Amino acid sequence: MSFRSILQDMKGEFGSKSRKGFDFRRSRTHQVVQDSTLAPYDAFKQSCWANMPPELLRDVLMRIEVSESTWPSRKNVVACAGVCRNWREIMKEIVKTPEVLGKLTFPISVKQPGPRGSLLQCYIKRNRNNQTYYLYLGLNQG
Predict the structure, then answer these.
(1) Are residues 136 and 112 both part of a single domain?
(2) What range does the domain containing 141 cover?
(3) Of 42, 49, 131, 137, which has the most beta carbons under 10 Å away?
(4) In the prediction, which pLDDT does 40 show?
(5) 32 & 21 share domain
(6) Which Gene3D superfamilies does the record match to this protein (predicted)?
(7) What pLDDT, in 10s, does the model give residues 26-69?
(8) What is the domain count for the chain?
């Protein structure tokens, strides 16, 4: 390959300033990389979960939240909040604060400021038989 053809190829790839964003040649490797990165995004856009109406999605997530009351099954509620931004916002609306709900769901639930008049009390109870620890939320003042 001559030096002149290399320069012409470079000029063709980079183009002038006026054509820079519009006329652009890709090599085979660029096409393969770009196509492989777009494939999962296109598949998600076409999935039934992405096209689900927000009201129906809210109803599904509410049913999951109500049915999962104790750990370890409560982790499904946390997993739903980790799917995407829209699901997380809906789960934040559904899952109430520990004072109202009486359940610790997200790690942030422990860090949220409680009412100024009373403290948020948590109790840890150990089961000596199987060496597991249980975290309880104290809702009474006594």
Answers:
(1) yes
(2) 97-142
(3) 137
(4) 57
(5) yes
(6) 1.20.1280.50
(7) 555 544 444 445 555 555 555 677 677 889 989 988 898 888 77
(8) 3
